[in-house]
Amino acid sequence: MSIVTYNNRSIANISAVPGAAKSLTHIKTLTASSDSTLSFVDGSSDVVLDSTYPIYLFKFINVHPASNSQRFTFQGNASGGSGFNETMTTTHFQAEHSEGGTSDFRYRTASDQAQGTSFQAITQQVGNDNDECFSGSLTLFNPSSTTFVKHFISRCQEYENSNYSQDVFTAGYFNTTSAIDEIQFKFESGNIDAGTIKLYGLKDS
Q1: CATH code at position 76
Q2: Would you call 46 exposed, middle or buried from its count of C-beta atoms within 10 A (0-12, 13-18, 19+)?
Q3: What global pTM score does this model have?
Q4: In the chain, how many domains are there?
Q5: pLDDT (tens digit per residue) in 11-24
Q6: Which domain holds residue 64?
């Protein structure tokens, strides 16, 4: 392996490394302020959600509900569709530990879908006290495919309304071979009081 030497010999002064490529590209940031929904729509407001990237990553940062004990949810629209009611089959489970020392690990049948068209929960009951919120991610695979269904995986850490730390896992697929080009997020009830959602595109290796 050869050693690369830069002319200025200072790492602090290097602005770019020849041959290096950014694999994760920031596309759009939405910041909530008492919004009922936050939507990422391909071709709108600089959002890219098409064949440009094979994988899209949503990052949730300190998302806080206006109403107490709310599940955070998402749905999609197929290209040309409306209503955010695509058919999904999903799975949902969690690990939890309370401030009082109680712990549990369980599958949540009330939060999965079998060919359902509802918004899919990716958290449990997030609290709305001033210090309560959740953070996490949702990965959407190849949403522009017109051959295969659209898989997704989510993992979120929340401060639950009963003072539990909950590590929540959700996965599934949009059961459509149409391209998915719109994703919308919301709490089951009440507004998104505060928080940030960032969208990234992941390039092929």
Answers
A1: 2.60.120
A2: exposed
A3: 0.89
A4: 1
A5: 455 455 454 456 89
A6: 22-100+108-202
